Amino acid sequence: MTEVGMRIIVVALSIGEMYLGYRFLTVCWVNDEEITRAGKVLMNVLAVVMGILAGINREIALFSSNLFVLQVILTGIPLLLLFPKKKLMALSLLIIWFTLIALVDFLAVFVVMEVKVNFFENVFFGMNGYKVGIFLFTRCVMMGMFLEMQMRAGQLKEIFATYKKGTVLFCVGLVVLLRRYQIAMAGFDDVGTTLHTKGIALSLFLMVVVAGIFVWMWAKITYVKQEMIFIRSRDKLREENYRNLRGLLEENQQLQHDMKHHFQILRDYAREGRLEDLRTYLDDIQEPLVRLQKIPWTRSEILNLILNQKFWEAEQAGIEMNLYVDSDFQMLLKEAEISALFGNLLDNALEACLRMEKGKRWVCVTLERKQGMIFIRIENSIDRLPRMEGSEFLTGKEDKKLHGLGVKSVKRIVEKYEGEIEMQVKIDSFITDITFFNEEERQNEIK
Question: With a threshold of 0.90, does the pTM exceed it?
Answer without folding.
Answer: no
